[in-house]
Each structure stands twice: as structure tokens, then as C-alpha cells.
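Chain A, query sequence.
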Amino acid sequence: MDQGTAARTAIAGKEHWTDKKGVKLFLWEKPQTSAGPKRGTVLFVHGSSMASQPTFDLKVPGRPDSSVMDWFAARGFDTWTMDNEGYGRSDKSRPINCDIPNGADDLVAGTDYIAKTSGAKKLLVYGISSGALRAALFAQRHPERVARLALDAFVWTGEGSPTLAERKKKLQEFSTRNRRPIDRAFVHSIFDRDHPGTADKATIEAFADAIVALDDSVPTGTYVDMCSKLPLVDPAKIPVPTIIMRGQWDGIAGVDDLVEFFKRLPNPDKQFSVMAGISHASFQQKNYLMVYHILYSFFSQPEPLYRG
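Chain A, predicted structure.
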């Protein structure tokens, strides 16, 4: 079976649970299916408005390889994702807004569990949108756990972000409650706000189906943080190899903001990739296979032998 065929075959996943000081957190694993040596262990970190499985293990009829977890598992990677506190199948009981530092704490608990269960000590970490902020803060706090870091739809200071400028108009509302409602119309708005047409209707509908099956509301903490508390991450304190992935039409990530962040990353093993034809939700776009390729190339890149 070639890799292309393998990637189109649904891979059985396994659910796991761990504990963060009394908070139950859900993890989802899809192990390597290809023959040969393991290329690494990937941890995918979701964003503000949806849980992990809709984002990273989506099934869309007629759209091969819609599950990025399946695609990477078929190419030699063990893959994991988790629902942050307040999302999906993880605990939603605490009266808090589940902000970005709390999400970084979730990643500590999750990586503790992954290391204990699989033996993987250093992970390939991908985060999207507020998940990129969680991943970056986690890498800043625990660089010893991160082999390579991918930040997609990332934002540093918020400068030049039309989406955040619009979102700030509701900051007072978000600040007075711990959760905000979501529905199918909200999911559609993710694809309409930047550059309509970057995702096909069937994928948007499948994505919406998967999201609302798990949540009718999500925490406000990431919205509050992104509108009023940036910057949350210091690039000078992220020593690991890092790629910045920015969709051509992404309204979250201002280019100049990201370039300034990129310039301050201390590890010379770093990349900046602008993804043509992409708006915000990269893995649900028409050009999703291009996104996979960019991420695969970075995660499978050999370490430099000479560093000067």
C-alpha cells in the first residue's frame, strides 16, 4: 500500500484521560501506521472555538485526507491531540474562563501523560490561532519538551489584525462571562470573515457538524487574552526550532507583527511560511494538502550537523 492510499484509510484512534489537579482532560491518539522507523510524535493544539477532534481528525465525504492525524500517522508519525479544559470532552465544571496560560498548563499535564504512556520525551508541537499561543507559551516554559514548534495563525502583539480589532468591540461582553455561545452560523462566520471561498461547502458543513456535536458554548478566556493582554509570549525565550505559518488572507495574524516576532527567535533553525490561498482555518481550506506539506517538511527536517 503506498502512502497516498494509506492516508485515505481511516485509522483507529484511542481515547485517553489524564488529570490536571482534579481537572479531567481528554486526549486522542492515532499511532504511526506506516512501516519503517518512527519520524516523531506530533501534538496538535486546537484554537478558541472548537475542540480537538473536529480540527485534527475531521472526516469529509469525497475529500481524501481530511484528517491531518491520519495523514501524518500514515507517514511515520505518532499523533496526539487533546481537548483543553472547557472544550469538547474535557472537564467544563470550573467557573473560570480558561485563558491561554491555563491552556498552557493543560499542555503540561498532557505532555506528562504522553511521555509516560508512549515514552516520547520531545514532541513536535503544532498549534493554530489561540492554540498557537498556548503552544508557544508552553514551549517558552518547557523548551526541553519540544523538538520543533509550528505556530499557525499566530499573533504576537495584535498589531495589524482586523479580526482582533473587530473582536475588541465585544471585549466588555466577553470579560463579564466565562463562556460564549457557538452554533453553525458562528462556524460559517470563520470562513466568511477574511476571504470567502477558501473552503468548500462540504468541508465547512462537516466541520460545523463535528464542532456543535461536542459544544454549544466555549470559554471566553482566549478571546479576552487576545483582545486585551497581548503579548503573552516572549520570542527571545523560545529556544526551539520554530516555523511561523501565516495564511495569505488570515485576519488574525498581521504580517509585520509576525516578522518582528520571527526576528527575535534565537534559534537560527527557523522558518516563515506564507500559505497561498489560505485564510484562517488552515486544515479545512481548499489548499489543505499544501499546509500538510509545509508542516511535514518542517517536522521531518534533519537537524543541522554544523552550527558554527
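DSSP finds twelve helices and ten strands in the chain. The first helix runs from residue 3 to 8.
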